[in-house]
Amino acid sequence: MPARADDVPATAEQSRTPLLLVGTPTDFTTTIAATLSKAGYAPVPAQLDDIPASAIAAPPPAILVLPPVLDRVDARIPVEDFIDALDAILVPAGLMARDLVARRGADQGTRIVVLLDSAVTGPAHNTVAAAAMGGLLGLARSWALEFAPLLVTVNVVVIGFDPAADPGAPRLPHMLPQPDVKAVAHAVAFFLDPRAASITGQVLSVCGGRLASGLPL
Amino acid sequence: MIQERQALNGGSVLVTGVASGIGRSIALRLIADGYAVLGLDIDPSPPPGLAGFEAVDITQPAEARKALAQLLAAHGAVLRLVNNVGSSRRENVIDSSGDTQRWLNRLNLGSALLCLQAVLPGMREARFGRVVNITSRAAMGRETRSAYSATKSALASLTRSWARDFAAEGITVNAVGPGTINTDLFSRNNPPNAPDVTRLREGVPMRRIGEPEEIAQAVSFFLDTRSSYITGQTLYVCGGLSLGAVSPAGNGPPLDDAIAPRP
Ligand SMILES: NC(=O)c1ccc[n+]([C@@H]2O[C@H](COP(=O)([O-])OP(=O)(O)OC[C@H]3O[C@@H](n4cnc5c(N)ncnc54)[C@H](O)[C@@H]3O)[C@@H](O)[C@H]2O)c1
């Protein structure tokens, strides 16, 4: 049976692959980082709007963009606030791609994974998050095409369940048990793996069937 | 029933970005369909036959709100909305400064929310509404156009979210996703021999660029009172481009040639 990311023994610090974790950490993403750490990555945290100069000078081979943490806000939000919220996410995301990838040039083999939450599917009463996650999805897919000549891959993992939900709560018959955070880390590790060098522009939902039978994104 | 009354009346429909390109074609089609078409554009040269028009820069929310209020005050509730206004700029990621993203967040996304908020109270009262967002095939990714693709993918996501928000009130929200369409926007941004443009041109199974009237056809369908059980959907009008612009060989020759006996 193939090893799960969390089963792989820790490796010596010097042989770890640097992994830039971009975004605001939560308990959930901190657990993902810890799981990836066990799988041989050395996570280095960074804020989307404050990428350290050291990372720009020597960009890491693996980048995980964390989902922005957003309040649930519906379509009554003042347009000015809506635009500010999108500017605050999509503008620095584009600049991050420029500074860490585009300006670095060819033959990098960098792996980028963009982690989104299920707001990308367009749930009700969630205008800002739907737009922000949808925007990041469009960026990721476009980067995949634009950075392919640089041998950079860009893929998306969707957290297709509510991490705050009680994992033991009754579920509908068509669903697998609620995935745990390690299942998400495993999907991220799959795309970060050098053996995934030919996989780009893809979207993988870790949802235990919750997003199955819905429209493809 | 309100829905039947709407079908008889035609009623009014607001179309943004109405002065040229796809918006102009949509307006002309909807006038021909019997609607009273209200328009917004920064360019004060709307097509003939509009029932109302305001010239405004829609990226300025305060001014745009005023223009919308004037249209509604003069023409009453608007139960159909086409969020067409939008633009794009060819830009490689390496050259970006964030300005294109900021501009398009206002033009392609802020405008849609602004217009939705203006017409929503009337739609909710009537328990009837039709909203059509013009997205793009680029929502599925486009090199040299990442900021644009982000706004269109965001609008696709909003289409699904707003569809769920208002479905129970008889308000449908759908999207039309144009492929490569013969407008100023397209010719401005697509130098004929650029590799990405070649990829798209050769990736269109129909092997031709689309016409704005072909987008208007899909918009008219979604606005129809009888399209009452369709919501949250995107209809790509793209000559088949959204099937995936793979290698040109992926688009076969016409079947007669393909099955002709080999010499
Ligand atoms: N043409 C294509 O190939 C294509 C493909 C996919 C999607 N689209 C989408 O279709 C829609 C229409 O595109 P088009 O090709 O007709 O573009 P266009 O540039 O030909 O027309 C856009 C219209 O919007 C108006 N406009 C621009 N900025 C404005 C502002 N700040 N305030 C008010 N009005 C403003 C312009 O004056 C113009 O009349 C856009 O949303 C575009 O993204 C077009």
Structure write-up:
The complex is a heterodimer of chains A (217) and B (263). Chain A is 33% helix and 16% strand. Chain A is an alpha/beta fold and 217 residues long. Chain A has one domain: Rossmann fold (3-Layer(aba) Sandwich), CATH 3.40.50.720. The longest helix of chain A is centred in the middle third of the chain and has 22 residues, at 79-100. Chain B has 263 residues and is an alpha/beta fold. Chain B is built from 9 helices and 7 strands. Chain B has helices at residues 2-9, 21-33, 61-75, 99-126, 146-166, 184-189, 195-203, 212-223, 255-258; strands spanning 12-16, 36-41, 52-55, 80-83, 129-134, 171-178, 234-237. Chain B has a 7-stranded parallel beta sheet with strand order 3-2-1-4-5-6-7, with helices on both faces. The longest helix of chain B is centred in the middle third of the chain and has 28 residues, at 99-126. The model of chain B is unreliable at 4-8 (pLDDT under 50). At the A-B interface, helix 3 and helix 4 of A face helix 4 and helix 5 of B. Nicotinamide-adenine-dinucleotide binds at residues 17, 19-23, 41-43, 57-59, 84-88, 107, 134, 136, 178, 180-181, 183-186 of chain B. Nicotinamide-adenine-dinucleotide binds next to helix 2 and helix 6 of chain B.
N-to-C series of helices and strands of chain B:
HEHEEHEHEHEHHHEH
Tell me the major beta sheet of chain B. 7 strands, parallel
Oligomer: heterodimer
Can you tell me the residue ranges of chain B where pLDDT is under 50 for at least 5 consecutive residues? 4-8
Biggest sheet, spatial arrangement of strands of chain B = 3-2-1-4-5-6-7
Find the structural class of chain A using helix and strand composition.
Answer: alpha/beta
Domain module count of chain A: 1
CATH arch. level architecture of chain B: 3-Layer(aba) Sandwich
Tally of DSSP helical segments of chain B: 9
